[in-house]
């Protein structure tokens, strides 16, 4: 729990630092956090998978993200993984840690994207390192639950 | 080790993000990282000490920083604590984690302060929350060893 706290707090500081920046729009700030997440994910997965075997296929990689990676970073697994078997994967986290500090209430929903951007980048970075090029978006339905959608880019 | 990696990497991204900023001097960037560390430390120690007892005295607080706090954040204890018993404490870390990724060599020494600023703030924030107002500076002698000097501000 203590270790989680350190990571949570430095992440929150990064979010607040990026949004404090002068002359930066909401979209730019979100993009910058996404980029920080991408770099973190890219290098993290390199360390984590150094000694593990290769993955069987794309679905196998997604399962790795939902289990091993999520446990390493967020101390829990993704609660539900869905796919249309055509390159779209939806990861449901019923209690996403970076949202769990937010009070439930519709008035806070507008700020949720700030707390999802780093993780969208993290997932995209991990997948990029594993050879999967994709777009990752996130959506909050009811705090602190959210879903991450991965759209794999073919060819 | 995996958890350490996540924290190390997000810290490195924060450093690189702050230094990428346009029109920001080295001193300003270091100050911003110090501030991020302060906020993180202030809130972290609040969570960590919520259920522990009160501290006996200032030295007792410093020992807590060197042992419990350092283990929580950096997975090792401070190697040596010295004090002049007049409000100056020097904490030696023989292998500071945020420096351990840097190649040894004098040409890299100039960049070391970037990787110490967050931690100076972290220590200052922890101590502020525990009622000790101080100035924290850091110095590298030989990578990856460094020392943090705490100067308590009286009255």
From TrEMBL, chains A, B:
Q: Which residues form a coiled coil?
A: none
Localization, UniProt: Endoplasmic reticulum; Golgi apparatus, cis-Golgi network
Q: Keyword Lipid biosynthesis on this protein?
A: no
Q: Which InterPro entries match?
A: NO_sig/Golgi_transp_ligand-bd (IPR024096), TRAPP_component (IPR007194), TRAPPC6/Trs33 (IPR037992)
* Major site of localization recorded for this protein: endoplasmic reticulum
Endoplasmic reticulum found in the keyword field? yes
Q: Name one GO biological process term.
A: nervous system development
Entry GO CC: cis-Golgi network; endoplasmic reticulum; trans-Golgi network; TRAPP complex
Keywords for the protein's UniProt record, in alphabetical order:
Endoplasmic reticulum, Golgi apparatus, Neurogenesis
Stated role: Component of a transport protein particle (TRAPP) complex that may function in specific stages of inter-organelle traffic. Specifically involved in the early development of neural circuitry, likely by controlling the frequency and amplitude of intracellular calcium transients implicated in the regulation of neuron differentiation and survival.
Q: Which family does it belong to?
A: Belongs to the TRAPP small subunits family. BET3 subfamily.
Q: What protein is this chain from? A: Trafficking protein particle complex subunit 6B
Q: Which organism is it from?
A: Chionoecetes opilio (Atlantic snow crab)
């Amino acid at each position: 729990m203590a270790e989680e706290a350190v990571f949570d707090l430095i992440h929150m500081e990064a979010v607040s630092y990026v949004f404090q920046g002068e002359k930066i729009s909401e979209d730019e700030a979100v993009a910058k956090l996404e980029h920080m997440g991408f770099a973190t994910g890219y290098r993290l997965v390199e360390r984590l998978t150094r000694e593990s075997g290769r993955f069987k296929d794309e679905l196998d990689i997604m399962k790795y993200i939902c289990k091993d990676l999520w446990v390493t970073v967020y101390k829990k697994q993704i609660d539900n993984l869905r796919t249309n078997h055509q390159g779209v994967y939806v990861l449901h986290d019923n209690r996403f840690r970076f949202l769990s500090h937010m009070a439930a209430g519709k008035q806070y929903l507008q700020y949720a994207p700030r707390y999802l951007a780093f993780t969208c980048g993290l997932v995209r970075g991990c997948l990029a390192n594993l050879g999967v090029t994709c777009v990752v978006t996130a959506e909050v339905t009811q705090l602190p639950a959210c879903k991450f959608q991965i759209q794999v880019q073919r060819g």
